[in-house]
Amino acid sequence: MVDTEVLPSILIIDDDESLLESYTVLLEDEFQVCTAETGETGLDLLRHQDIHLVLLDVRLPGIDGIEVLRRIKALDENVDVIMITAVKNVRVAVEAIKLGAYDYLVKPFEIDEILSLLRRTLEHQSLLREVLYLRAEVDRHLEMGNIVGRSPKMRQIFDFITRVADTNATVLISGESGVGKELIARAIHQHSQRHGNPFVAVNCAAISEHLVESELFGHERGAFTGAVEMHRGKFELANTGTLLLDEVGSLRLDLQAKLLRVLQEREFERVGGSKMLRVDVRIVAASNQDLWQMVAERTFRDDLFYRLNVVPVHVPPLRDRREDIPLLVQHFLAKYNKAFGRQVQGFTPEALAILTHYHWPGNVRELENVIERLVVISHRRLLDVADMPLDLVSVRGQLVNDIFAVGADLRQAKAEFERHYILQTLEQHGWNQTEAAKSLGVHRNTLLTKMDLLRIRPTPSSDASMPKDPKN
Ligand SMILES: Nc1ncnc2c1ncn2[C@@H]1O[C@H](COP(=O)(O)OP(=O)(O)OP(=O)(O)O)[C@@H](O)[C@H]1O
Ligand SMILES: [Mg+2]
Question: Which ligand places an atom closest to the C-alpha of 185?
Answer without folding.
Answer: 1
